[in-house]
Each structure stands twice: as structure tokens, then as C-alpha cells.
Amino acid sequence: MVEELDLTSLECPEPFMKVVAKLMK
After folding, report:
1. Domain segments of the chain as ranges
2. What local confidence, expressed as pLDDT, does residue 19 receive?
3. How many other C-beta atoms are found inside a 10 Å radius of the C-beta of residue 10?
4. 24 touches 5 (CB < 8 A)
5. 21, burial (CB in 10 Å: exposed 0-12, middle 13-18, buried 19+)
6. Are 9 and 16 in contact (CB under 8 A)?
């Protein structure tokens, strides 16, 4: 999951990370 997050971060850094943070919380 970490690898996927990094790859997606390169494409959509801010929005995706915020959504993931909410889901992880």
C-alpha cells in the first residue's frame, strides 16, 4: 500500500493524500 501511495502521490499529491488520511483515520 505504501508503494501505491507513493506512485499516486506523484500524480495527485495534495487531494489524494488528504483522502487517504481521512480513510486511515
Report:
1. 1-25
2. 80
3. 7
4. no
5. exposed
6. yes
Question: Residue 25 — pLDDT band, cuts 50, 70, 90?
Answer: confident
- Say whether 23 sits in a helix, a strand or coil: helix
- Cα–Cα distances (Å) from 7 to 15, 20, 23, in that order, read 14, 13, 18
**pLDDT tens digits along 11-23:** 656 777 788 788 8
Q: Please compute, for residue 2, the number of CA atoms within 13 A of its CA located in the half-sphere on the CB side.
A: 0
Residue for grid cell 507513493: 6
